[in-house]
Amino acid sequence: MAKKRTFNDKPFRYHQEIELEISTLTNLGVGLGRVTLPPSEPAEGEPETSGGWVVMVPFTLPGEKIRARIFRNHKNYSEADLLEVIAESKDRVKPVCSLFGSCGGCQYQHLNYSAQLHWKRQQVAELLKYMAGLEFSVEPVIGSPKELGYRSKITPHFGLPRPEKADTFPIGFLKQSSRFELVDVPQCPIATDRINLKLPEVRAEVKRKAAEGLYSRGATVMLREASGSVTTDYDASITECVSLPPVDKKLISEGSTPVSELKLTFLARDFFQNNPFILPLFIDYVRTQASLSGAKYLVDAYCGSGLFALSSACLFKEVAGIEISATSVACAKANAVSNGITNAQFQAGEASAIFAGLTFPAPDTVVVIDPPRKGCDESFLNQLFNYGPKAVVYVSCDPATQMRDLKPFLTSGYVVKRIQPFDLFPQTRHLECVITLEKGV
């Protein structure tokens, strides 16, 4: 029988209540404050606490005085639950969702939107300094045109339901601070209106099947909106139409014609940005940064269905998309044809030889990379540096892994030219960040 884990009672007892002032927000969306501990000589291996002992408290805001209850002590910080806000921040607002605080999907519904943008910019700057060892001016975050009702894809989960409880089991998202427990979510205010209209029907179907004993395990339900309709079929072929801003005529490649509306077809299960309202601004920024490098060729690594390659094609002599997913490459090729784009090629690259077969001269090529949340692996970065493009535009949905990856760019001779965050995920701790790098001489 496994030995039960005992509570570490240093420096606080279990459920000890304390008062403290919150000084900042972490990149995980958690309030951070410091508490002065009674003076004592630290044992060997224990951290110094001269600056105050760190306490993390979710759903608190900088400048607030709060009362919290400790539930875990780590080696150099503690975690606590919020009991009371004694003095509120001027930026605190009433959350729009009654599940805020229990559902783990949103972290910032209690924070006004302009302050959300301020703190996200601050968090990018801090990650840049402490993870990449670089102090560089971060541009103000470009906010979403919609603060609610923007998310075009959600994936509610449910556990294995018992037929006798088919009407009561939760269908939703992970509970705050839990790895297993789910919160029932009948409606989601950050999802689009059409998804919320479809959600009751989908939930009823899941419960009907549960009552008939048709599930052998828990599952995930997908609702994805594209072109005005919502699908729940992972294998459905869907089309997203993206209106593109006008292109500066000075940047257009000779003989090219800009596309004003890009139609992209892809499988519903495949990755695609989930905030269509900010997407035109986001795409335009990435392609403009790539063009300003002066390169004649563009490579879109992790190209998916061709979003950046096809939207940027009019700015370059030739563009190429590289993707390890064969189905995504097939979609990208078909999208090039359907949009009348003739100077784009796509290839399925093996993980061990991503740039194999690429004929673009590296000194005249810019590479756009948009990796998954885990960032770039060492093999990809080594291949990229061996190729040695003139410039790189690094798009990331996780600034922490992006800043981790930035260090090898700096040691490989690349220089940061601009850092621009975009808030594709209002009310949450998440954001996209675009870093433009150029190879030093």
Explained architecture:
The protein is α+β, with helices and mostly antiparallel strands and 441 residues long. The protein has 3 domains: 1-91, OB fold (Dihydrolipoamide Acetyltransferase, E2P), CATH 2.40.50; 122-147 and 234-439, Vaccinia Virus protein VP39 (Rossmann fold, 3-Layer(aba) Sandwich); 153-230, no CATH class. Helix content is 21%, strand content 27%. The chain contains 7 helices and 21 strands. Strands 17-16-15-18-19-21-20 form a 7-stranded mixed sheet, sandwiched between helices. The chain has a 5-stranded mixed beta barrel with strand order 1-2-3-5-4. It is globular, with a radius of gyration of 24 Å. The model has no long low-confidence stretch (mean pLDDT 93).
Q: How many domains would you count in the coordinates?
A: 3
Q: CATH topology of the largest domain, what is it called?
A: Rossmann fold
| Low-confidence region ranges | none
Order of helices and strands: EEEEEHEEEEHEEEEEHEHEHEEHEHEE
Strand order within the widest sheet? 17-16-15-18-19-21-20
Which range does the strand content fall in?
Answer: 25-35%
Radius of gyration: 24 Å
The SS-based structural class is alpha+beta
Brief digest:
This protein is of the alpha+beta class and 441 residues long.
Sum up the structure in keywords.
441 residues; alpha+beta; OB fold (Dihydrolipoamide Acetyltransferase, E2P); Rossmann fold; 3 domains; 7-stranded mixed β-sheet; 5-stranded mixed β-barrel; 21 strands; globular
